[in-house]
Write a structure and sequence with these properties.
single chain; alpha/beta; D-Maltodextrin-Binding Protein, domain 2; 2 domains; 49% helix
Length: 334
Amino acid sequence: MKRLLVLVVSVFACIGALTGFASAQDVTKLSFSIWQQPEHYMVKAIRSWAEDVEKKTDGKVKIEFYYGGTLTSGPQAYDGIVNGISDIAAAASGWNPGQFPMTRIADIPLGWTSSRQASLVTWDFYKKYQPKEWDEVHLLYLFTDAIGYLHTKQPVRTPEDLKGMQIRGTGSDVPLIEALGGTPVGMPFGETYLALQRGIVQGMVSNLASVQAAKIGEVVDYTTDLNIRPANFWVAMNKQKWEGLSPDVQKAIDEASEAAVVRLGEALDNAQAAGRAYVLEQDNEIIEPTPEAKAKFEELLKPIRTQWVDEMKAKGLPGAEVLEFVTAAMKERQ
């Protein structure tokens, strides 16, 4: 009898072990390359999407984050997913010049009012036009970081105040800084604090959330409250890995991604509000340009729109049509 009992227990234990093994085998683990550290405000918002993916797929998909560029740096992220170094990655569209010409509409100064608005409008644009520049990957979603302002060691109240000033800027920020009369200086974001502290540069373009995250308020004294630009970001997946997922899992991930556009926009706007409070806590002055000064700033930025439309036309892409669509969508998404 004892032998029979032992045998029955053993059989059930084996079945349980095999069932557990099968369940473990059914879980798809996806690597996610992210250039920032876990506590960064943007990473926290992206992780909430990953949690939603796991929930909507009933635990069939688990996303494992590799922080701090350990798999790929930001500029390497796109090639990294194309070549299978990571399954998923996030990066700014502006970090790969020429790679995403149409999506660059989201980096053009058009008077964007919030991350939520810009994220929704940019996703509206993608769903309508489906630009071929994303054909190598499965684009999960686009979103836009909090709106960027000018942060400087000396006050900038008019465009004349900016002339000759060395301003840290890379990617899409370079033509904006040049248009406003500043001199762009390229350097990694992580080096900006010391560069400002040592006077190598006199300012930078950034949203307030990043200023707080990097403690930039300690080494600048002024923020010019001018919506200079948004900064578009993407989250995409290796195409072969995506095609290997079952249709029900694909559907669940797409649903989570659609919801993430609004969720990230709102989270980044909240981070922007916290950044504004931080700047004021540092006793920094937030400069509100006069209507006349604001009009001058905006006039200097206008040619960037025309230049983008001309570049798209030269490539045979509908830049003028996209610009019209986006400006109309901005009003609807206020």
